[in-house]
């Protein structure tokens, strides 16, 4: 199992229509084959200044690789993520 997580801050103002649209449109990622347990999360800790997180799981490396190269993921990153995300941190975990 691989847990893929990204924490990020958008360029948009908090509560804006653009923020809402980004989060709505990101749900396409949950429909990509191999994605399980997709979650959108709002960051609440004062220990950092990131605003959101996405978390999802994959059964194995093949499922993760399929997601990473899937046309819907590639298009979302190109058309939405790159122009709209101000900063992010990506972490991929496996169980120890």
Average pLDDT across residues?
97
Assembly type = single chain
Q: Span between N and C termini? A: 11 Å
Low-confidence stretches: none
Q: Could you state the order of secondary-structure elements as H and E?
A: EHEEHHE
Number of strands: 4
Output the radius of gyration.
Answer: 13 Å
Please, how many helices? 3
Secondary structure category: alpha+beta
Give me some keywords for this one.
34% strand, alpha+beta, 96 residues
Explain this structure.
This protein has 96 residues and is an alpha+beta fold. Helix content is 34%, strand content 34%. It contains three helices and four strands, in the order E-H-E-E-H-H-E. The protein has helices at 17-26, 61-69, 71-84, and strands spanning 2-10, 36-42, 52-58, 85-94. It has a four-stranded antiparallel beta sheet with strand order 2-3-1-4. The longest helix is centred in the C-terminal third of the chain and has 14 residues, at 71-84. 6% of the residues are buried. The mean pLDDT is 97.
Which SSEs are present, and which pair or pack?
Blueprint: E1 2-10, H1 17-26, E2 36-42, E3 52-58, H2 61-69, H3 71-84, E4 85-94
Antiparallel strand pairs: 1-3, 1-4, 2-3
How would you briefly describe this protein structure?
Helix content is about 35%, strand content about 35%. By secondary structure, the protein is of the alpha+beta class.
């Amino acid at each position: 199992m691989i847990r893929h997580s990204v924490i990020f801050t958008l360029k948009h103002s908090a509560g804006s229509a653009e923020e809402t649209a980004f989060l709505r449109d990101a749900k396409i990622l949950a429909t990509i084959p191999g994605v399980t347990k997709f979650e959108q999360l709002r960051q609440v800790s004062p220990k950092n200044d990131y605003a959101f997180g996405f978390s999802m799981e994959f059964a194995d490396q093949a499922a993760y690789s399929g997601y990473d190269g899937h046309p819907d993921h590639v298009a979302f990153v190109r058309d939405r993520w790159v122009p709209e995300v101000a900063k992010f941190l990506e972490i991929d975990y496996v169980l120890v």
